Amino acid sequence: MSILHKEIASIRQDYALSSLSESDVLPDPIHQFSKWFQEAMTSEVTEPTAMVLSTCDQQGRPSSRVVLLKDIKPEGLSFFTNYESRKGQELLANPYASVLFFWPELQRQVRIEAQVERLAALDSDAYFAIRPRGSQIGAIASPQSRLLKDRMELENLVKEVEDRFTNEQHIPRPIHWGGFLLSPTRVEFWQGRSSRLHDRVVYEKQESTWKIMRIAP
Q1: pLDDT tens-digit readout, 163-208
Q2: Which H/E stretch holds residue 71?
Q3: Which of 48, 52, 55, 166 has its CA 20 to 30 A from that of 62?
Q4: Could you say which of 133, 146, 164, 196 is catalytic?
Q5: Does some domain include residue 9?
Q6: Is residue 12 over pLDDT 90?
Q7: DSSP letter for each residue of 76-120
Q8: Is 196 a catalytic residue?
Q9: Residue 8 lies in a domain
């Protein structure tokens, strides 16, 4: 075993802040997620909206990245991106994804498996309209996930868009940018416990109802 391996292997944190049982949770996983999310906000978690989004290409090869949650709807969670990016193209070709929230301050994780669909254009328009102007310009200018010659190429693209809209107060949403809705089929709420004997409560979609069960850590 290498010295570095020994250092990594010796890292330990015991979890003892809270517990979770099937009787603690709400009948609907979106309501339960909203409850935990509010607790994360109240606890001043560093990045409560950050979620690891995993998608697969048509050969089944996965890729992951951090995106930001932007809305909690009765039917699921939404976020926004460039539809022509790698994640956008993978979701359009294979409309299934998983997301992971990790809130270490609360010793909690939420894992969600979901079907994915585009948000309605009106929803994407409404969110784009309230973004900071710089973010609007960046969404238009950046050919997300494409090769760039260097940083200057990106800055030149941004300047071109800035110049185009210099005298315009309103910047319209580009057609290649918008939202996705994640409609959960399985949701796991994970609460860290001592000795790695964590609490894991899972919801599985069964037609119009949810089955709630505990699984082993």
Answers
A1: 999 999 999 999 999 999 999 999 999 999 999 999 999 999 998 8
A2: strand 71-73
A3: 48
A4: 196
A5: no
A6: no
A7: EEEEEEETTSHHHHHHHHS-EEEEEEEEGGGTEEEEEEEEEEEPP
A8: yes
A9: no
Q: Name the domain count of the chain.
A: 1
Range of the domain at 130: 14-214
Asked whether residue 199 is domain-assigned, the answer is: yes
**Alpha-carbon span 80 to 178, nearest angstrom:** 5
Tell me: pLDDT of 3 over 70.
Answer: no
CATH number at residue 121: 2.30.110.10
Q: Is residue 57 part of a domain?
A: yes
Rounded Cα distance, 128 and 135, in Å: 9
b/e map 176-197, b = 16+ CB within 10 Å: ebbbbbbbbebbbbbbbbeeee
